[in-house]
Design brief:
Order of helices and strands: HHEHEEHHEEHEEE
Shape: globular
Distance between the termini: 84 Å
Number of strands: 8
Largest sheet: 8 strands, antiparallel, barrel
Length: about 220
């Protein structure tokens, strides 16, 4: 007969191993190279604003955004009207990641921008989400047919695999929608950093979809 506890220790070890295997495994990689250095990209910033502070935040943006656009190009700045309330969405264009790094450094040292906007605006923001996105190869950034319109910001969460998997089917679906004359396509972005497998504007590649109606701010280049 085995001494007491001889069987319990292997069983306990096996139980620990089973629990470890059941837990989600986390992996990370670190990379650099041309992908991080070259090519124009767009940073999509979404801020959740405290409901009682939305009007104050928008007024501050309209008043001081010129301090920010002195450093890099603003594509558009909108507030959410339907779908997700108390949000603002703004899109910035960069030549490459080195350009963005230089801009962020300059902004951190811009006393006017930090003092007049950042310091008073931060207490008004509840949450911030940033994504790096690229225009899909078959789409160029467009202009609205006239000023004063509204924008539909559509986010498609696609199955993993990237445009190589679902690109052509997605392009066909978008073109079919645009060709009806129902809407004017401004741009289609594919996220590279942030929430991945996301496209903004076929069903078998779609995981989820979210639509938000946006109103351009007074300062927005896209109106």
């Amino acid at each position: 007969m085995l001494p007491p506890g001889t069987l319990r220790r292997p069983l306990a070890a096996a139980a620990r191993l089973a629990r470890a295997r059941a837990r989600p495994q986390v992996f990370a990689s670190l990379a650099t190279g041309p992908r991080q250095n070259n090519s124009i990209f767009y940073e999509i910033r979404t801020y959740d604003i405290k409901p009682s502070k939305m009007k104050e935040f928008v007024e501050m943006v309209n008043k001081y955004v010129h301090l920010r656009t002195a450093h890099s190009e603003l594509v558009g700045f909108w507030s959410a009207e339907l779908g997700a309330m108390n949000k603002v969405v703004h899109v910035w264009k960069y030549d490459n990641f080195a350009h963005r790094t230089a801009v962020r450094h300059a902004l951190a040292n811009d006393k006017d921008w930090q003092g007049k906007f950042i310091s008073p605006a931060l207490p008004l923001i509840e949450k911030q989400h940033n994504e790096v996105a690229y225009l899909v190869p078959w789409c160029q950034l467009g202009k609205p047919p006239k000023e004063g319109g509204v924008y539909e910001w559509v986010t498609f969460q696609m199955k993993p695999g990237g445009p190589a998997l679902w690109g052509e089917a997605f392009r066909a679906a978008i073109n079919a929608h645009v060709n009806t004359g129902y809407t004017k396509l401004i741009g289609v972005f594919h996220t590279e950093y942030g929430l991945l497998n996301t496209v903004r504007d076929s069903v078998r590649f779609l995981e989820s979809q979210q639509n938000v109606l946006l109103i351009p701010l007074q300062c927005s280049p896209l109106k």
